[in-house]
Structure formats: C-alpha cells, structure tokens
Amino acid sequence: MLSHPLGDGFELRSLEPWHHREFADFLDRARDFISPWLPWAKIVTGEEAAKKWLYDRAFKRVEDAFHMYGIWQGERLVGGVVFRIFDTADKVCEIGAWLSPEVTGRGLMTKSCVHMIDWAVHERGMNRVEWRCEPANVASRAVAQRLGMRLDGTLRQAYVNTAGDFVDAEVWSILADEWKRR
Ligand SMILES: CC(C)(COP(=O)(O)OP(=O)(O)OC[C@H]1O[C@@H](n2cnc3c(N)ncnc32)[C@H](O)[C@@H]1OP(=O)(O)O)[C@@H](O)C(=O)NCCC(=O)NCCS
C-alpha cells in the first residue's frame, strides 16, 4: 500500500523517518489533545526527538513487528495509525491511533482502521486484532465499537498515564472469522 484514499482529499500513506519535520509539526498541533491518552506525545518534542521516534519504529517495521501509516491531507500530517504489536507467530496484532483535533468527527480513523485490518487479516493472515484504551477514552472505545470489536475485559491499573497515575486498560478485539463475516 503506497496510498489509500479516505475521501475529501485525505489519504492513508506511509509515515517514514524522513517525515520528521511533518511529524514534529503534527505533534505541536495535536500534543494537548492526544497526550492525555498517549504519554509519548508529551515527551517527543522537536525535530530531533521526532526523527529518533520514527527511526526506532522503522527498525521494528523491518523486523515485521510494527507497521505505521500517516493520515495525510496533501503534505500536512493529520494523524497516524499503527500496528503497535504485530506478532506473526501467534497471529495477533494491536492497533493504535491518533488524530489532530481539527479532523476528528469525519470517520477518518474508522476508515483507516478498516483498511489496516483488511490488510492484516486478508494479506497477512492475522487471526486476532486488538484495540486497547482507557475506559474514560470515549472517542477511542467508540472506534473499537464502530469496527465491530467486542470488549474482552479490563486490565486493572495496566498503564501509568501522563499524570503519573495507574490507569485501567480495556481490551477490545475482533477475530479473523468475525471480520470476514462483518
Ligand atoms: C481516538 C480518535 C482517533 C477517534 O477519532 P474520531 O474522529 O472520533 O474517530 P473517526 O475518525 O473514526 O470519526 C468518527 C466520527 O465521525 C463520524 N463519521 C462521519 N462519517 C463517518 C464515516 N464514513 N465512518 C465512520 N464515522 C463517520 C462518526 O459518526 C463519529 O462521529 P461522533 O464522534 O460524533 O460519533 C481521536 O479521538 C484521538 O486521536 N484521540 C486522542 C488520541 C487517542 O485517544 N488515541 C487512542 C488511544 S487508545
């Protein structure tokens, strides 16, 4: 996949280390919105940190253990979707996602995830696709629901959030058979 259209001039396409300037700009615009749920967004500031973050993940992609795409409006990066876990042995993967606040509410994330899951299930033979979020992250759990996932359960105090508090994590999932019947 080099580029997948999402409508209205938006597209899902690669997000590579050489996009560090666009990624740093994106984080400056979106940091206050996404960092309460994604603590790394608070730490990655400036182009050098953005470059290192992208390079670290590019190495994991070479190992087929991580895959990442940007949501672009022309040359402006407005979001990202990752398989933050891509386990080809157990055939389990987990999606992570973020958007710039001004482009929420138009289905960009749901459409991107549909394309990513189609690829994972149909082309890569993944059997289980997970989505993890804090119970309080209403917009995030709504994406999981819109994708037809079911709530497997809640991991108690599974993460430390930006404020340093332990927070629960809901685990949502859909299995390959369910995705194909969807
Ligand atoms: C989680 C996040 C990506 C969800 O963004 P979102 O815009 O709500 O999700 P989508 O892009 O799928 O858009 C869905 C909305 O668009 C609407 N929509 C319009 N057209 C649509 C379409 N064709 N398909 C699906 N939804 C559509 C839906 O009704 C929904 O609107 P609502 O919020 O009023 O119910 C975003 O809130 C975010 O980045 N949050 C901060 C970071 C974060 O929490 N990441 C997840 C960590 S677990």
Automatic annotation (TrEMBL):
One matching Pfam family, short form?
A: Acetyltransf_3
- UniProt keyword Transferase, yes or no: yes
InterPro entries, alphabetically? Acyl_CoA_acyltransferase, GNAT_dom, Ribosomal_N-acetyltransferase
Q: Which UniProt keywords apply?
A: Transferase
Task: Give the UniProt entry's GO cellular component terms.
Answer: cytoplasm
From the UniProt record, which GO molecular function terms apply? protein N-terminal-serine acetyltransferase activity; protein-N-terminal-alanine acetyltransferase activity
Q: Tell me which residues make up the N-acetyltransferase domain.
A: 10-177
Record's superkingdom? Bacteria
Could you tell me what this protein is called? GCN5-related N-acetyltransferase
Species name for this entry?
A: Stackebrandtia nassauensis (strain DSM 44728 / CIP 108903 / NRRL B-16338 / NBRC 102104 / LLR-40K-21)
